[in-house]
Specification:
The complex is a heterodimer of chains A (87) and B (465).
Chain A (H helix, E strand, L loop, with lengths): L2 H15 L14 H5 L3 H15 L14 H12 L7
Helix pairs in contact in A: 1-3, 1-4
Chain B lengths: L1 E6 L3 H12 L4 E4 L11 E4 L2 E4 L17 H9 L8 E3 L3 E5 L2 E5 L4 H10 L4 H13 L12 H8 L3 H13 L10 H14 L2 E3 L3 H14 L3 E3 L4 E6 L4 E6 L4 E9 L3 H7 L3 H5 L7 E9 L12 E5 L13 E9 L19 E9 L1 H5 L3 H19 L10 E7 L1 H8 L23 E3 L8 H18 L3
Parallel strand pairs in B: 1-2, 1-12, 2-9, 6-14, 12-18
Antiparallel strand pairs in B: 3-4, 5-8, 6-7, 10-11, 11-12, 13-16, 13-17, 14-15, 15-16
Helix pairs in contact in B: 1-8, 1-14, 2-14, 6-7
The structure holds flavin-adenine dinucleotide.
The site of flavin-adenine dinucleotide has 38 residues of chain B, from helix 1, strand 13, helix 13 and helix 14.
């Protein structure tokens, strides 16, 4: 997946978790916690969705890397570069 | 082999099932009853739809709110706000002799009511709010501290203490006389700070959405399949034996049947006899009216009443205790259809809850049980009209359910609505892969039990692989 595809994928996951949110205005460099008020239960869900969809395992000590869109995409790029986007 | 077997298709079991099925676990919910919902099911009688439990869905927050239990459970279960279609209450009342406090959704109205009726307590109430905000469920603050003590040390007018405790105990206290301070804080937020709401179609809308989602995700639901025994060795459980003798193996078992009830399925009589089951059960007297309650001058959503200065939260010695009660009118919500036009239930409904004694009801011969139901329905209504306009001329149909009915719907010992007084907040049991969720884990009510199912499933059945 390219960086743009990874971003799309994360948007997809966020949309799944919070279907009532308008994500078109999401700012990539602002923390999810601040913009969407995601809590630790939600971050865990992002991790589990990534595992479910792409079999990527994210160790607990790396959860902090998922703080914002920009950091998430950067962190996931090496893990997902050989994975094709399905939908 | 199932990854998880869930005992009970009430709110908590269904919610846990959705979480597990969503993450591709093989999961099966076993329900002894012929239908889903447990304590909060629905039924049809004389051509009318009734809810078993629902007065109000607590923890109301308007669409777009990201914080709080309601928002959290919608995200965890991947529902849209519209899937629950919650209409906010018109307004509720705490009615004691000579003084009434009005409640709305959000704290504002209650705060101004306290300023008006208890001016000397204005600052104390603010201090209580700080104490509640500081109370953190996850910190080691003692959950079981006495709410009466904590609140009385801040609020110096004993009448206000009773008036604040009354609705919170009614909607979520399994303990007689006093309340755990932890539970007090949870209920305070969900009732006074957030508030009441109801879907136009009643609890069936929520249940149908839960069960549809569970099935779409590949979960199995087996109705009329009670669990008779849980098979185990010293440290682990391995599966269940059903009432019909069928055996099902499972890697985890999650039970919403109650703490004592679950341990008994494991044949554990010793630990299941310590610190006994709950004793508080209810009757619910329902009246169908030929007019809308508002046409009779009653616009309250819920009235919590008590006929003296002291609120007693105890198992009655007789069939029912009519000194206190809850009057709910499901008509008194701001219902809107999809186009935003106001709509209204076709008939007027008044539901009145009273404290009741399980043994007294359970031991009656059939014929007398029917007679006592009629008699106590009338007495309950007579007690309630002290606190609302007299609607008795307008009754066109009635129904009543008793602790015996509650027992039949849930198999809870003593028909205890909120389960056992001592909760098991971490959900664990003496067996490593057996967990409890729902009522006896500690979160009660519709929103509470759904969150309980979610959090116990997350913690033990999802994160362990
Ligand atoms: C009269 C009344 C009014 C209420 N009003 C409200 C309200 O207005 N708002 C609100 O939020 N809450 C209300 N409640 C409380 C709310 O209904 C409960 O807190 C909630 O439904 C509990 O859900 P649960 O999943 O924990 O347990 P339950 O609903 O008790 O579910 C347990 C399930 O397990 C099944 N079961 C038990 N034993 C076995 C077995 N051995 N094998 C298979 N299945 C088994 C039972 O049949 C049941 O379906 C009310 C309750 C009552 C009684």
């Amino acid at each position: 997946m390219t960086l743009a595809e990874i971003r799309e994928e994360i948007i997809d996951i966020l949309h799944d978790i919070a279907p009532d949110e308008d994500l078109s205005e999401l700012k990539d460099d602002v923390d999810f916690r601040e913009q969407l008020e995601l809590d630790s239960m939600d971050f865990l869900d992002i991790v589990m969705e990534l595992r479910k969809r792409h079999r990527v395992q994210i160790p607990e000590e790396d959860y902090g890397e998922l703080a914002s869109m920009h950091r998430t995409v950067t962190y996931l790029e090496p893990l997902l570069k050989d994975v094709a986007r399905v939908s | 082999m199932y990854d998880t077997i869930i005992i009970g298709a009430g709110m908590s079991g269904l919610a846990a099932g959705i979480r597990l099925a969503h993450f591709d676990r093989r999961v099966c919910i076993l329900e002894r009853h012929t239908t889903i919902g447990g304590l909060n099911s629905f039924y049809r009688l004389n051509g009318r739809d009734y809810d078993v439990g629902l007065h109000a869905v607590t923890n109301y927050m308007p669409k777009g709110t990201r914080r709080g239990p309601l928002a959290k459970l919608l995200r965890q279960l991947r529902f849209r706000w519209e899937d629950f279609s919650l209409a906010p209450q018109i307004g509720s009342t705490i009615a004691f002799p000579g003084v009434q406090l009005q409640l709305g959704n959000g704290l504002e109205l209650l705060e101004s009511e306290i300023d008006k009726h208890f001016p000397s307590q204005k600052d104390n109430f603010q201090q209580l709010l700080t104490q509640i905000a500081d109370y953190d469920e996850l910190e080691q603050q003692p959950f079981e501290a006495s709410a009466r003590q904590v609140v009385s040390s801040t609020i110096s007018d004993p009448l206000l203490v009773e008036m604040l405790l009354c609705p919170l105990m009614w909607y979520g206290n399994a303990r007689e006389s006093d309340m755990d301070f932890g539970q007090f804080c949870i209920m305070f937020r969900s009732i006074f700070m957030e508030g009441f709401s109801r879907p136009f179609a009643g609890v069936r809308l929520i249940l149908k959405n839960l069960v549809r989602r569970f099935r779409e995700l590949g979960g199995e639901l087996k109705l009329s399949r009670g669990v008779d025994r849980i098979v185990h060795d010293k440290k682990h459980v391995n599966g269940v034996v059903l009432d019909n003798g069928e055996q099902l193996p499972g890697k985890h078992i999650l039970s919403s049947a109650g703490w004592f009830e679950t341990l008994r399925m494991c044949g554990d009589v010793v630990s299941s006899s310590t610190r006994g089951p709950g004793k508080l059960s209810f009757t619910e007297s329902i009246a169908i009216l030929d007019k809308q309650p508002r046409q009779l001058g009653h616009d309250r959503t819920i009235v919590f009443f008590n006929d003296s200065d002291k609120f007693r939260w105890e198992q009655p010695k007789t069939m029912c205790d009519l000194r206190t009660g809850v009057i709910c009118s499901p008509n008194n919500y701001w219902y809107e259809d999809v186009s935003g036009k106001q709509q209204q239930l076709s008939e007027g409904v008044i539901r009145i809850t009273a404290l009741a004694n399980f043994d007294a009801w359970q031991n009656l011969p059939e014929e007398q049980y029917r007679l006592e139901k009629l008699r106590w329905h009338e007495r309950t209504v007579t007690s309630a009209v002290r606190f609302m306009p007299d609607f008795r001329r307008h009754i066109i149909d009635t129904d009543m359910f008793t602790p015996k009915t509650i027992h039949r719907f849930t198999w809870h010992d003593n028909g205890a609505v909120y389960g056992a007084p001592n909760k098991h907040l971490d959900g664990t049991t003496p067996w490593k892969n057996l967990y409890v969720c729902g009522t006896d884990q500690g979160y009660v009510g519709i929103i509470g039990s759904i969150l309980s199912g979610i959090s116990i499933a997350n913690r033990y059945c999802l994160q362990t692989t």
